[in-house]
Structure formats: structure tokens, C-alpha cells
TrEMBL record:
SUPFAM superfamilies: Ypt/Rab-GAP domain of gyp1p. Pfam families: RabGAP-TBC. This is Rab-GAP TBC domain-containing protein. One of its GO terms (molecular function) is GTPase activator activity. It comes from the Eukaryota. It comes from Oryctolagus cuniculus (Rabbit). SMART domains: TBC (SM00164).
Length: 341
């Protein structure tokens, strides 16, 4: 019996190793790997799509930028101030001026650099030279979450120019980071929501910087997102219970409505925490939320969730599940913490 069990396990390991190698080969081939897609994986969206200023694709042509020249000049001045602040980040980081400017909004041109400064990406990378390459190689040889990661990538920001091409350059980078992190942090491995977080970082950072930004976000005391993704998600459960208490005490009418409709608040707001509002709000607003979340840390998440629920509850006399819980996009700046972008 023992020898037969060992043979079965060896066969299983061999089959998984072959499947992993075949999947890695698809990503290494890049767009040529798309020829290996099974029919249901193919991207069958046709027609001419137009990108907006953030890279998201739309079926209709968008209005042309009508920003006055004076405002554009002001924006250039803001960028120059940010560049100066980044170069002297040891002087400005943690200052009132630094915080005020983040609340006003980080220009897209420097957002990645500012996030990296706040997350101390360069420091962490310097402390671990060659570590990311090592993790990528270990993932090639023994990662176990490759199917889950590939499935997640197939649905991550596919309406964005960067991630539209199956097995394209940016999907490759996303695959590399998620595979490497699954080996770097085996307790988490891969968990739902991580692909969107990493994809967001890749929009503004090089591949290795995005990896270390994820590590810092998961491990730093200020953010400690690790608890949202580890087995049994203890932190997620704690935050959801906290939100439930807030709703019970401050929004009793909303609580009664949810009970009447049979809607579970905890189940319906999970994505708010594991993706930090990347799903359910317009992307420009999500960026502003992330600016403040990276600055302030985890304690702003309950305030964000409460404010979103409060606004939807006050704006709708008969709120549906989609409107109340953000499963349709919030069309207003729903957070008092965030000024209009």
C-alpha cells in the first residue's frame, strides 16, 4: 500500500510539474502563447475601442481634453514641486507639507515614485539584492498556485491597455510577481484580489519595484495586508465585524433594509478590503483612495467603507443591493477623506 501511494504521489507531482512548465512556456512565448489558448479563454471582444487618459478602453469616443492652458501650466508646476520633494524625500517624508500635497492629489506622472517613497521600496530592495530573481527561479521550479494565478490574470483589468493582450508583456510581469510572491510568502501563496493590487502597482512601477511594494504593503505595520489574505482571513473578519457594529449603531435603517433583502454585509463588502476599493468605484477615485491608504495605513479603511455606505444610504430612499454595497460603480466622490480628483 505504501509503495502504491508513493507511486501515485510521484505521478501527481510529475503531472503538476509538466502543467506548470507548459503554463510558464505560454508566458515566456508572450503573444505567441495566445495561439495555445483554449477557445473559452480567447478574448472575443471586437470593435474599435478608445483609451482614456488612464489607459482604460471604451466603446465610445471620449470628449477631448478641454483643460484651460493656465490650469495645465499649474499642473506642470505641481509636478515640478513633486519631483523636488521626491529628490529630497528624506527631508519631506512625514512632514505636514508632504501630507497636504498627497491629500490634494498626486500627479499621475510621479505617483509610482511617491508610492515607492512611502512604502520604502528602494530600502527594502537594497536590503535584498537578487532576492526577486531568486524567488522567480524558485517559482519556476516549484510554485503550486500557478493555475489560480493564471486564471486570475485572465480577468485582471482586461479593459486596460496594459493588460488587454493575453500573455503580453505586462501580463508576463504580473505572472512573474504573483508566482514569485507565492513562493516568498507560502502562508498566503496566492489569494483572491492580489492580482488587481499587483496590476495597479505595475501601472506605475517597474516589475521588481512592484514586487517589493507588494511585500511592504503586506508586511509593514502600518498596512499589514497579510491578514486579509492568510488562511481563515482573521483580519478581514475583524474589519467586517467592526463595519457591522458601525452600521448597527449609526445606520440602523440600512441594517434593517439589508436584513429585509437578505443581503449579508460581510459577504458583499469583502472586495472593498481585499482590493482596497479597486472594484466598485471609478478608477480615478480609487487612485486617490490608494494615495491616502498608502500614506495613512489600514485605519482609514473602516472610515472609507462607512462613508461609502452612508452616502449611498442617504442618496437612495429604496437602495438596492448593488447601490448600497457598491457592486455598481459609485458615481460620486464617496469619501470625505478624498477631495475631487
Amino acid at each position: 500500500m505504501d509503495s502504491r501511494w508513493r507511486l501515485d504521489m510521484n505521478a501527481l507531482r510529475s503531472r503538476r510539474a509538466q502543467e506548470r512548465a507548459e503554463l510558464i512556456n505560454k508566458y515566456e512565448q508572450g503573444c505567441r502563447g495566445a495561439a495555445l489558448l483554449v477557445p473559452e479563454e480567447e478574448d472575443d471582444e471586437g470593435g474599435c475601442l478608445v483609451p482614456d487618459r488612464l489607459g482604460f478602453l471604451h466603446e465610445q469616443k471620449l470628449p477631448q481634453d478641454s483643460t484651460p492652458g493656465a490650469k495645465r501650466k499649474q499642473e506642470v508646476g505641481r509636478i515640478q514641486k513633486w519631483i523636488k520633494m521626491i529628490k529630497n524625500h528624506s527631508k519631506y517624508r512625514g512632514s505636514d507639507k508632504f501630507q497636504r500635497r498627497i491629500y490634494k492629489g498626486i500627479p499621475a506622472q510621479v505617483r509610482g515614485k511617491v508610492w515607492a517613497v512611502m512604502l520604502e521600496v528602494d530600502k527594502r530592495k537594497a536590503q535584498n539584492p537578487g532576492k526577486y530573481a531568486e524567488m522567480k527561479e524558485l517559482a519556476r521550479l516549484g510554485a503550486t498556485h500557478f493555475h489560480h494565478i493564471d486564471s486570475a490574470i485572465a480577468w485582471t483589468f482586461r479593459n486596460h491597455l496594459m493588460f488587454r493582450e493575453r500573455y503580453g508583456m505586462n501580463q508576463q510581469a504580473l505572472f512573474h510577481i504573483l508566482m514569485a510572491y507565492s513562493v516568498y510568502n507560502p502562508e498566503v501563496g496566492y489569494s483572491q484580489g492580489l492580482s488587481h493590487v499587483v496590476a495597479l502597482f505595475l501601472m506605475y512601477m517597474p516589475e521588481e519595484d512592484a514586487f517589493w511594494a507588494l511585500v511592504q504593503l503586506m508586511e509593514s505595520r502600518k498596512h499589514a495586508m497579510h491578514g486579509f489574505y492568510k488562511p481563515n482571513t482573521p483580519k478581514l473578519e475583524r474589519f467586517q465585524q467592526h463595519l457591522g457594529l458601525i452600521v448597527h449603531r449609526v445606520l440602523p435603517s440600512l441594517e434593517k433594509h439589508l436584513e429585509k433583502e437578505g443581503v449579508c454585509l460581510e459577504d458583499s463588502t469583502t472586495h472593498w478590503y481585499i482590493q482596497c476599493f479597486l472594484d466598485g468605484v471609478p478608477f480615478p477615485l480609487a487612485l486617490r483612495i490608494w494615495d491616502i491608504y498608502i500614506l495613512e495605513g489600514e485605519h482609514v479603511l473602516p472610515a472609507m467603507a462607512y462613508t461609502a455606505l452612508k452616502i449611498h444610504n442617504s442618496e437612495s430612499s429604496g437602495p438596492t443591493e448593488a447601490r448600497v454595497l457598491g457592486t455598481e460603480e459609485l458615481g460620486v466622490p464617496c469619501l470625505s477623506l478624498v477631495s475631487r480628483a
